[in-house]
Design a protein that fits this description.
The protein is an alpha/beta fold. It folds into two domains: 126 residues, Aspartate Aminotransferase, domain 1, CATH 3.90.1150.10; 241 residues, Aspartate Aminotransferase, domain 2 (3-Layer(aba) Sandwich). It has 13 helices and 14 strands. The strands form four sheets. The chain has a seven-stranded mixed beta sheet with strand order 2-10-9-8-5-3-4, sandwiched between helices. The protein has a three-stranded antiparallel beta sheet with strand order 11-14-13, covered by helices on one side. Strand 13 and strand 14 form a beta hairpin. It binds 4'-deoxy-4'-aminopyridoxal-5'-phosphate. The site of 4'-deoxy-4'-aminopyridoxal-5'-phosphate (PMP) has 13 residues, from helix 3.
């Protein structure tokens, strides 16, 4: 059987210890044993989110958490701002529209970061804005948003800051409380190194106050109900027990390494990927000023079919990287540094990319990408 190296921005590779826990017999969720785990994972999540706020656990993929972040704090006809620089920024707009919320959309060119001045302009003209929705790591373009600067711009206003950190939590710096972030949404299958199936939502007191006035319909994704259950170390519905047991392990791995060390490790991995791409004569898609450490988007050279490139890497050599989405289909490839990935995984990914690009006719010196990445990884 061929090895399958997963260098995709979700799901990410699972550590062996997580696979072991996932293989254990299930326990019942209304037991002291599970309650003990729920308590521990909530504290562990607060550490990873860098918050003292409530962190609620929902059984769904990340988008369920995004939907909850729209339907629980707002009401139809409310006005919000969406910073939209890619496919996942667009999801915020679509969700708001679905609930009859008026979204003032700031369209950021793909691959670039949004400007705080654009946000301030709308806030100055529209006094009724209730929330601002942003994306920590726009997975479709490989851009990290400057959430700290946006949080500063909103401090002292009535506007809540809602961050989609589904990509990026645990991989790139995010300081929920210090940066004035009211609601953070995350998912299990990326930086937390778990299978998909859990969403997490942190909620500040300012956001809870807004939730009191929200009239959008909600049933399964009802955060007040989730909070009420959490206060009794419980969940309103049957949770994904197995993934929560494994979450406890992944949070332990993160805590043992230390969140800041983890951010630095991913930054170094990404530096290696970027250096390799440049050495191979490839252009990076994201503006260097905002290129994410979680995922690196690399432009496919003209004349080479990006979809074919990723397919050969996966089917022939067992290395899975992501292609581009929507307008970037076939035009970029994305290598993920997030999750259970080390420098040798990245080097394998680069070696495979070199091999297939060479086979497909791209002119460059074989080994140049590997040498450039090695140079970064060998720096003390
Ligand atoms: N937001 C971002 C930034 C993402 O990367 C993803 C998943 N790729 C989502 C939202 C959607 O998450 P899910 O597929 O878990 O619903």
């Amino acid at each position: 059987m061929k090895r399958n190296l997963l260098l995709t921005p979700g799901p990410t590779q699972l550590p062996a210890r997580i696979c072991q826990v996932l293989g254990e017999p299930i326990i019942h969720h209304r037991t002291p044993q599970f309650q003990g785990v729920l308590k521990e994972v909530t504290e562990g999540l607060q550490y990873v989110f860098q918050t003292k706020n409530d962190v609620l656990i929902l059984t769904s993929s990340g988008t369920g958490g995004m939907e909850a972040a729209v339907s629980n704090f707002l009401s139809p006809h409310d006005q919000v701002i969406v910073l939209e620089g890619g496919k996942f920024g667009e999801r915020w707009t679509e969700l708001c529209q679905m609930y009859g919320i008026k979204a003032h959309v700031i369209k950021v060119p793909w691959g670039k970061a949004g400007a705080v001045s654009d946000i301030k302009k709308i806030l100055g003209a529209q006094k009724e804005i209730k929330a601002l929705f942003v994306t920590l790591v726009e997975t479709s373009t490989g851009v990290t948003t400057d959430v700290r600067a946006i949080g500063e711009a909103l401090s002292g206003t009535n506007v809540i800051l809602v961050v989609d950190a589904i990509s990026g939590l645990g991989a790139v710096e995010l300081r929920t409380d210090e940066w004035n972030v009211d609601v953070v949404v995350a998912g299990s299958q990326k930086g937390l190194m778990l299978p998909p199936g859990l969403a997490f939502v942190s909620v500040s007191p300012k956001a809870w106050a807004l939730a009191e006035k929200s009239t959008c319909p909600k049933y399964y994704f009802h955060l007040k109900a989730a909070k009420k259950a959490a206060q009794k170390t419980d969940t309103p519905f049957t949770p994904a027990i197995g993934i929560i047991m494994a979450l406890n392990e992944s949070l332990l791995l993160i805590k043992n390494e230390g969140i800041e060390k983890l951010w630095a490790r991913y930054a170094r991995l990404a530096q290696g990927t970027r250096a390799a791409a440049r050495a191979m004569g490839l252009s990076l898609y994201a503006d260097p000023a905002c290129a994410s450490h979680a995922v690196t988007a690399i432009q496919v050279p003209s004349g080479i079919d990006g979809e074919k490139l990723t397919k050969i890497m996966r089917d022939t050599y067992g290395v899975t990287i992501a292609g581009g989405q929507e307008e970037l289909k076939g035009k970029i490839v994305r290598i993920c540094q997030m999750g259970c990935v080390d420098e040798f995984d990245i080097l394998t990914g680069i070696a495979c990319l070199e091999k297939v690009l060479h086979e497909m006719g791209h002119q460059f010196t074989l080994g140049s990408g590997l040498a450039a990445a090695q140079k970064i990884y060998n720096q003390k």
